[in-house]
Amino acid sequence: MSSIGQRERATQNRVVELFQNELEYDYYGDWQDRADNSNIEEAYLAEWLGKQGVNASLAALAIRDFKRAANMGDGKKLFHANKDVYSLLRISSAGMSAHGIASKMKPTAQPRLFK
């Protein structure tokens, strides 16, 4: 591994530690080479939404919209996919989700993703 790659890996490890130790995130390991790897893990997201009090049909709609926003097919650029995902996260955290999901979550479960 090049020195740039080693520095990048060290930085990624520090970020993982921050998310685990300071933000209490679960870490599932390095899935870089995992079969069916995806940037949106539907099963984990659906489970988490269920624990927050969101019913399965609303969770499925939210996941569908999230995947649609993140999709880069049909010539969509990364910038626009990121913008669409960010927009959904902002809307959901403000309690104005198109499907009313944020309003159905436990009050402590509604994350403040952005200031």
* Intertermini distance: 37 Å
As a percent range, the share of helical residues equals 55-70%
Number of helices: 5
Query: pLDDT average, as an integer?
Result: 81
**Radius of gyration from the CA trace?**
16 Å
Low-confidence stretches: none
- The topology string of helices and strands comes to HHHHH
Q: Structural class per helix/strand content? A: mainly alpha
The main sheet comes to: none
Strand content: under 5%
Number of strands: 0
User: What count of domains describes the coordinates?
Assistant: 2
Shape: globular
Write up what this structure looks like.
- This protein is mainly alpha-helical.
- It folds into 2 domains: 1-37, no CATH class; 41-115, no CATH class.
- Helices cover 56% and strands 0% of the residues.
- It has helices spanning 3-21, 42-51, 56-70, 78-93, 101-104.
- α2 (42-51) crosses α3 (56-70) and α3 (56-70) runs antiparallel to α4 (78-93).
Task: Outline the secondary-structure elements.
Blueprint: H1 3-21, H2 42-51, H3 56-70, H4 78-93, H5 101-104
Helix pairs in contact: 2-3, 3-4
Put the structure in a nutshell:
The chain has helices spanning 3-21, 42-51, 56-70, 78-93, 101-104.
